[in-house]
Amino acid sequence: MYTKDTVLLRTVTMNNRTTILVLLTFIGVGCLSAAIALLVTRTRPDANGIQQEYDLDLCHPLVIAHRGASGYVPEHTLGAYALAATMGADYLEPDVVITKDGQIIARHDNELGLTTDIAQRPEFASRYRTQNVDGRNVSGWFTEDFTLAEIKTLRAIERIPSIRPGNARMDTAFEVPTMQELIDLTKGLEISLHRPIGIYPEIKHSTHFKRLGLAMEKPLVDLLHSNGYRGPEAHIYIQSFEVSNLKELKDLTDLRLIQLFAGNSNLQPFDQFVTGTTLTYAQMATPEGLREIATYAYAVGPDKGYIIPRDADDNLGAVTSYVQDAHEAGLKVHPYTFRSENVYLPAEFRSDDPSPAALGDADGELRAFLATGIDGFFADQPDDLVRVRGPCEN
């Protein structure tokens, strides 16, 4: 449990963008003993195939802060999550992995070298190793080899410093947070911002951790339930690129689930590869595949290329039927990931600035996807989407 009662104000100006007052709030939340009762709504087809509307007290489409406001602050830090909430994000999205002693923490990877200063820690040098993770050989330091107390000695660093040099100036400013610390922060922010804020965890490397005896599914559900998140009306989505763990979760909880799709549709979910099925993401993206997903999930999270693929010149191409097919199956659609830097944008929305960190016309891409009828966006710069989405009736 973090106990810092610190407020760091930082003014960030990026090219000609509006100056943003970055509020990185560390709220002392150990004294919070009760959750706020919130009347919230979500969408899920019931047993009769009739959709019940939820999330009506939130703005639409939903703004999902991808790893926090990771376009401005190093990802998966309490600073990034606090900033995202102050920018107007509806949901804060952590990827979650697990430690040697069974503690759930917010990291995109179980390998710690990309996002912490562990490579500069001689006391941990001997734990560097190579192992197979989800079918790939990966070298580094892994969360499953460290206790939470050891990981708490590390400091977060920017994953992509050449693209986000401003974030890199905040290297080592933040710890690696636990899922419980993010929950506590979110509840505190709901009070201070006077609005509901959801959490959108993604279980990473499910099969890998199960093989190690460190399955995250039940511990995560137990943690969420113990913090008052129960039923489809709770401000929670649980996401995974795998299939079997989502079906397992459906039996463990009534919290909403989301099936993610890899960018390469020819790939298989890793659990399906391990069990020897032939199921691919391309098959899952068909009308039949989406109807099957609707039997265990509330929503789908495709790479945005499933909705508007790019052409040979890297411009946006023709809109596919994916959104319509998913909606007809009773699923909400939350594509990933919207980023404002040129390197991530379609060609027609890039600026002429050759700098790796240069920003383009992110609004143009966002408007193109808004027109497809999607229900939410994963965004690294959530303020862009909040602005393009416009005023909220709520």
TrEMBL record:
The protein's matches in InterPro entries, at most eight in alphabetical order, are given as: GP_PDE_dom, PLC-like_Pdiesterase_TIM-brl
| Pfam families from the UniProt entry | GDPD (PF03009)
Q: Which SUPFAM superfamilies match?
A: PLC-like phosphodiesterases (SSF51695)
Residue stretches making up the GP-PDE domain = 61-389
- Superkingdom of the organism of origin: Eukaryota
Q: Which GO terms describe its biological process?
A: glycerol metabolic process; lipid metabolic process
Keyword Transit peptide set for record? no
E.C. number(s) listed in UniProt: 3.1.4.46
Asked if Hydrolase is a keyword of the record, the answer is yes
Alphabetized, the UniProt keywords read: Glycerol metabolism, Hydrolase, Membrane, Signal, Transmembrane, Transmembrane helix
Q: Which reaction does it catalyse?
A: a sn-glycero-3-phosphodiester + H2O = an alcohol + sn-glycerol 3-phosphate + H(+)
Sequence intervals crossing the membrane: 20-40
GO-annotated molecular function: glycerophosphodiester phosphodiesterase activity
For this chain, the family text in UniProt reads: Belongs to the glycerophosphoryl diester phosphodiesterase family.
* Name the record gives this protein: glycerophosphodiester phosphodiesterase
